[in-house]
Specification:
Structural class: alpha+beta
Largest sheet: 8 strands, mixed
Helix content: 25-40%
Oligomer: single chain
Organism: Streptosporangium sandarakinum
Keywords: Oxidoreductase
Shape: globular
CATH topology of the largest domain: FAD/NAD(P)-binding domain
Protein name: Glycerol-3-phosphate dehydrogenase
EC number: 1.1.5.3
Pfam family, one: DAO
Length: about 500
């Protein structure tokens, strides 16, 4: 396909016949679309929601995993290990904030203590040899505010915290800059084969394509059945979390992990790149794939666990509560496969480790598609990856940048005082390649209204900027902005 054709599809012409449509604009789907757009292909990224990363990808514990505790020999173990390095490198290039906090897995019972050597051996089988078993004295030296009764621990020095919002947005933005057509508000309701192509019947109209990649997360099993398969079932697993105020951050400067069980990694305490502390998640299997509400039972459970793990944390102020749904499946591994006859690739059963593994999953999916017959001719005209706005507290923010403020005073005009978000950042979010569709998308791009007061003080001003889509903020110096340009100009 020519560059002209690729640019035409990048302008949003959903009536075109695409070479590939990727269903699901979460981290995995966005990474796959970005990878495929590195080849001479017309690619569309389709999602049922009105923004990228608005499903499972937005609400997790935001940990960049080494994969030390994955099941050895599984595809998940391999892709998490590879993804850790790929995402680390990509974050450095794009400005996704990462903090190398390290983690400490704590044993509270004799049974858990006896499990530590096996976990260390498992880590080594997974290719990670930097864990160390430590006694209680060293546990409390590293985490002095931990509750009483810890018997020992296993250090995992390379576990890190990352901004999951920026990761998703960076991958999707990179995909769009490479020419991917972003098609939002299009829930797939049926699939039809027509003369060598696949027609996706969506709530926003038909989309025609030669190949389909299913990265639909919670809906991946439903889409898979539309293609004639019945190989796995997704169970929405709700994880509720408590977010503690930034004043709690000195209590937990590293990730505190429990000994994992078959249901997951259990309740942890983790710092965030935004300066807060997380407690959670719960793990509750549901039938409703849209139920992301918190519950009295879930919060009570977390408080009970927190009282054991770190009693001092419970004395701090809770800034927010939230819940996310993980795509748990009845398989113990990722379900990634290609159907050459239907020109269809499934990337299903991707649990919370998909944040770390996303770019590696994209590499694997592209390889499978190529083996199944998708022609992959690398492009030589790829743009540089985007440089993303920094949302992390460990790195300079616009309100702290005197030179930037001097060039454009909008970066010195703080709108959200809890999170120190400026009018310039909000304006730039609306002028970016993928602007927010509403308040929740604006939160994920800027942290506006995400702090202690939850918008009580800044809500009116943020609402005014949202209504005008940032147009009421002058842009005095284009060098620092995020002005929208045509796909041709971005190349």
């Amino acid at each position: 396909m020519s560059t002209t054709d690729r640019n035409r599809t990048a302008n949003g012409d959903a009536s075109a016949t695409f070479d590939v449509v990727v269903i699901g604009a979460g981290i995995v789907g966005s990474a796959i679309a970005r990878k495929l757009a590195g080849h001479e292909l017309s690619v569309a990224l389709l999602d049922a929601r009105d923004d990228v990363g608005d499903g499972t990808s937005k609400a997790n514990t935001a940990i960049l995993h080494t994969g030390f505790d994955a099941k050895p020999g599984t595809l998940e173990s391999r892709l998490v290990r590879e993804g850790y390095h790929l995402l680390s490198d990509y974050a450095e290039r794009t400005g996704i904030p990462i903090e190398r906090t390290g983690a400490l897995l704590v044993a509270w019972t004799d049974e858990e203590l006896e499990a530590l050597p096996g976990l260390k051996e498992k880590a080594e089988r997974n290719g990670y040899d930097r864990t160390e078993i430590i006694g209680p004295a060293e546990v409390y030296r590293q985490v002095p505010h931990l509750g009483e009764g810890a018997l020992g621990g296993l250090t995992v020095p390379d576990e890190s915290v990352i901004c999951t919002w920026t990761t998703n947005l960076a991958l999707a933005t990179d995909a769009v800059r490479r020419g991917v057509t972003l098609l939002l508000n299009r829930r797939v309701e049926a699939v039809e084969e027509r003369g060598g192509t696949t027609v996706l019947r969506t709530t926003g109209g038909d989309v025609t394509t030669r190949w389909v990649v299913n990265a639909a997360g919670l809906g991946s099993d439903v889409i898979d059945r539309m293609f004639g398969h019945d190989r796995f079932t997704v169970t929405p697993r709700r994880g509720e979390l408590l977010v503690y105020d930034k004043l709690a951050r000195p209590l937990a400067d590293k990730i505190i992990l429990p000994v994992p069980t078959s249901r997951g990694k259990g309740v942890l305490i983790s710092p965030t790149v935004y300066g807060n502390v997380l407690l959670g998640p719960t793990a509750e299997d549901l039938t409703d794939r849209t139920d992301t509400g918190t519950s009295e039972k879930g919060i009570a459970f977390l408080l009970e666990k927190g009282r054991k793990l770190m009693p001092e944390l419970l004395e701090e102020e809770v800034t927010a509560t939230y819940a996310g749904l993980r795509a748990a499946s009845d398989h113990s591994d990722y379900v990634i496969d290609a159907d050459a006859r239907r020109r269809y690739v499934l990337a299903g059963g991707i649990r919370s480790t998909g944040l770390t593994a996303g770019i590696a999953i994209a590499e694997y999916v592209a390889g499978l598609a190529g083996e199944a017959g998708l022609e992959l001719v690398p492009r030589e005209d790829l743009p540089e990856p985007p440089r993303m706005p920094n949302l992390g507290e460990a790195f300079p923010r616009p309100y702290q940048d005197a030179a930037r403020i001097a060039a454009d005073p909008a970066y010195g005009r703080v709108v959200c005082f809890c999170e120190r978000v400026t009018a310039g950042e909000i304006r730039d979010a609306f002028r970016s390649p993928i602007p927010p569709a509403g308040l929740e998308g604006l939160r994920r791009r800027t942290r506006a209204m995400n702090g202690r007061c939850q918008g009580f003080f800044c809500g009116a001003e943020v609402g005014r900027l949202l209504e005008s889509r940032g147009a009421c903020v002058p842009h005095e110096n284009r060098e620092h902005g995020g002005e929208r340009r045509s796909p041709e100009a971005r190349r």
